[in-house]
């Protein structure tokens, strides 16, 4: 039996350390190789005025085993970021910005810095020390960011 050039994720099985098991090749269809989630304008009416639509293996089974993933960002320019380097995007123009992102991992992390710092349960004293922001301002930011649902960024 010849090895296939692809391994469409069989998401009915549990994900393992190297990804999902391959779907039975007899059940693979053209739709397995197409992701339409990047189409159309996305909603950016939120605090960050942005949106991230992911094409990770959970949304696009065709990239299983390729060691990559993609995303569409409704903000910022396309840039290269060294691995693990904290970065951000902001649109300084007058028209909507759009970026398509290729990531060199099958399951990359995604974290919004402000919600990570102020939306969780990090003690006020620690947040104040690492940001040089007064404890009063940290409490105000905690009130703002603790109510943000970041799961909506995972389309």
TrEMBL record:
Pfam families: Cupin_1. Mn(2+) binds at residue 87. InterPro entries: Cupin_1, Germin, RmlC-like_jellyroll, RmlC_Cupin_sf. Keywords: Apoplast, Disulfide bond, Manganese, Metal-binding, Secreted. It comes from the Eukaryota. GO terms for molecular function: manganese ion binding. Signal peptide: none annotated. Coiled coil: none annotated. Residues 36-139 form the Cupin type-1 domain. GO terms for cellular component: apoplast. Its main location: secreted. Disulfide bonds join 7-22. It is found in: Secreted, Extracellular space, Apoplast. Belongs to the germin family. PANTHER family: GERMIN-LIKE PROTEIN SUBFAMILY 3 MEMBER 3 (PTHR31238). This is Germin-like protein.
């Amino acid at each position: 039996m010849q090895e296939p050039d692809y391994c469409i994720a069989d998401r009915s099985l549990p994900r393992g350390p190297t990804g999902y098991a391959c779907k039975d090749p007899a059940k693979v269809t053209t739709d397995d190789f197409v992701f339409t989630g990047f189409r159309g304008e996305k909603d950016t009416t939120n605090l960050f005025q942005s949106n991230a639509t992911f094409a990770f293996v959970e949304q696009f089974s065709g990239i299983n085993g390729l060691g990559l993933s993609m995303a569409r960002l409704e903000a910022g320019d396309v840039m290269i970021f060294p691995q693990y380097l904290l970065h951000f995007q902001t649109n300084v123009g007058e028209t909507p910005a759009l970026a398509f992102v290729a990531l060199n991992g099958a399951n990359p992390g995604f974290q919004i810095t402000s919600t990570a710092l102020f939306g969780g349960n990090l003690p006020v004293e620690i947040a104040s020390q690492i940001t040089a922001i007064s404890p009063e301002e940290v409490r105000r930011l905690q009130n703002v960011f603790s109510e943000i649902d970041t799961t909506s960024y995972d389309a």
